[in-house]
Specification:
By secondary structure, the chain is α+β, with helices and mostly antiparallel strands. The chain has three helices and seven strands; from the N terminus they run H-E-H-E-H-E-E-E-E-E.
Length: 124
């Protein structure tokens, strides 16, 4: 993206559902600033256990719908991957819930800008 106000609102709403085993990652974290030279097309939510993908998906979808968002699951359902379009009025974003091994080169840590758990690359 770089993250816009709509994506930030979605992430703030879902922040209470995140933890070190269910965290924001990928381009969502790397390119969150408005001056990012790259864009992403989705919000990436990673999970250490396959079983937690479905649980997080169900919890997040319920949280979003209770807050007035329309959530439309898209694509094939798989035990290691879920995808949904999230919209409200004329704004929309895509969220992907993905299984990722607990092995990490970089630790999961709190991201103060997103106010949630995220996996970020170490600063050089």
């Amino acid at each position: 993206m770089p993250l816009g106000p709509f994506e930030r609102e979605v992430l703030r709403l879902l922040a209470t559902n995140r933890n070190p085993d269910s965290y924001v990652g990928g381009a969502t974290v790397l390119h969150q600033t408005p001056d990012s030279p790259r864009s992403s097309e989705d919000i990436d939510l990673f999970h250490d256990e396959q079983e937690s993908v479905e649980k997080a998906f169900d919890t997040d979808v319920a949280t979003l719908r209770q807050s007035g968002f329309v959530v439309e699951p898209v694509g094939h359902t798989h035990d290691t991957f879920r995808r949904a379009l999230v919209r409200r009025a004329d704004q929309q974003t895509k969220i992907e819930w993905v299984y990722e091994s607990a092995f990490r080169f970089f630790p999961v840590e709190r991201d103060p800008d997103l106010d949630t758990w995220a996996k970020k690359a170490q600063k050089a």
